[in-house]
Amino acid sequence: MTQHTLRLKKNADRRLKAGHLWLYSNEIDIQATPLKAIEAGAQVVVEAANGKALGVAYVNPHSLICARLVSRDPAQGLDRSLLVHRLNQALALRQRLFERPFYRLVHGEGDLLPGLVIDRFGDVLVVQLNTAGMQAVLPELLDALDKVLAPSAVVLRNDTSGRRHEGLEAGIEVVKGELPDPVLLEENGVRFVAPVLDGQKTGWFFDHRVNRAWLNGLVAGKRVLDVFSYVGGWGVQAAAHGASEVLCVDASGPALERVAENAALNGLQGRVVVGEGDAFEAMAALKADGEQFDVVILDPPAFIRKRKDIPNGERAYGKLNREAMRLLGRDGLLLSASCSMHLAPERLVDVVRGAVRHQDRLGQILFQGHQGPDHPVHPAIPETAYLKALGVRVFRD
Question: Which of 24, 183, 225, 312 falls 20 to 30 Å from 244 in CA-CA distance?
C-alpha cells in the first residue's frame, strides 16, 4: 500500500512514542528520505533513526506539520477498513453520551483521524477535510460512512483556512443525497435550524453544549445579552429556559435572521430581539442608553489565531470583558468564553480578573467549562484542548 518511508532524525521519535501524532519538517532526515520527493497526501511508513518502523502517516511536504500518524501498525494504512473501524469507535462513544443524533461525530486527532471533522445532524453529515491526506481518501471515507451510518445526505464544507495552508481548493458541495429543508438539530431540549451550507464552520457549534446547559439553569426571569450570538445557540436557549428578555447582537444580518427563525421555531419570538452591529460599538451604545442586563454572554470568534497574535488578542479579550461588565447590574452574571487555542485557561482567568478590578467590582468564578465530550481531547496533543468558558458573578460589596 505505502511506497515511501520517512526516516526521522535521532531522538525525533520521542513525541510519537509519548502518543503524539504529528511530525514537523525539521524532524525528518531528508538525506535518508527526501521529504520534497513525496507527493502531498501520500502515505508513508515512519521509521526511527535506527530504521525501526513506528507506524503509517500521511504526508504534506509543503506544511510545517509535514506528517500525521494514522496507524501505529506499519502494515495498516488509512484505508476503508481502518476508516470503518475508527468511525465505529467514534460512533460508539457518541451513542454512549447522547440520546439524540446531534453531535460532533469525528473530532480530528481526538478521534485518531487527524484532519477530519464530521458533525451529525440526524441523517445529515457535514464533513470537513482539512488536510491533503484526508482529501486523498475521500472516496474511501464516503464508502465507510455509508457502511457505518448510511446517511441520507453528506455535505462537504471544504472552505476552511486549514485547506489553504495545505494547498487545497476550497468549496462547498452536497456529495450525497438531498438536504432536507430545513436541516434541524436539537440541543438541551431546544430546536434549531442548522445553516449547513452557508453558516459558520459546519453550521453549528456543538462544543458549547455543556456550557450552555450550565447557564440555562441560571437565567429564569433574567434579562440576557448574547454578544456574538451567531444563530442564537446561547440566547434562544436562555429564552427557552425562562429568561424574561434576550437581546442577541451579531455583525451578520443573515445570522440574526436565523436567530429570529430559531426563536419562532420554539415559540419564543416574543422574548428574543436582535441587534445588528459590531460588538464593541453595540455594547458602548447600550451603555450610553443606560441599558442593564442580569446576564451577559461573550462567545467571540478566535482573537488569537497564531502565537504572534497573543498580546493583541489578550488586549481585545480584556476590552471585551470590561465593556460587558459595564452592562451588568449590581449583582450580575458574566459568561466569558474563548475558542483561541493559544489563550491558556489561566490567562482567560487573568483577563476576567483584570476586567473586574478595572470596573472596581468583585468577582467570583462559579463555573469553569471547556469543550463537550463529543470534542475529545487527545492527552498527548494539548492543541486539541481549545475551548474555555468561565461563569463569573460580578457584583458590588
Answer: 183
**3-state SS track over the chain:** CCCEEEEECCCCCHHHHCCCCEEEHHHECCCCCCHHHCCCCCEEEEECCCCCEEEEEEECCCCCEEEEEEECCCCCCCCHHHHHHHHHHHHHHHHHHCCCCEEEEEEHHHHCCCCEEEEEECCEEEEEECCHHHHHCHHHHHHHHHHHCCCCEEEEEECCHHHHHCCCCCEEEEEECCCCCCCEEEECCEEEECCCCCCCCCCCCHHHHHHHHHHHCCCCCCEEEEECCCCCCCHHHHHHCCCCEEEEEECCHHHHHHHHHHHHHCCCCCCEEEEECCHHHHHHHHHHCCCCEEEEEECCCCCCCCHHHHHHHHHHHHHHHHHHHHCEEEEEEEEEEECCCCCCHHHHHHHHHHHHHHCCCEEEEEEEEECCCCCCCCCCCHHHCCCEEEEEEEECC
pLDDT given for residue 2 in this prediction: 54
Q: Write down the mean pLDDT value for the chain.
A: 96
Q: Catalytic residue at 339?
A: yes
Q: Among 3.40.50.10610, 3.40.50.300, 1.10.287.40, 3.40.50.150, name the CATH number for the domain at 192-395.
A: 3.40.50.150
**pLDDT digits 0-9 by tens, 225-236:** 999 999 999 999
Its pTM surpasses 0.85:
yes
pLDDT digits (tens, 9 = 90+) for 301-312: 999 888 899 999
Q: Does 270 score more than 70 pLDDT?
A: yes
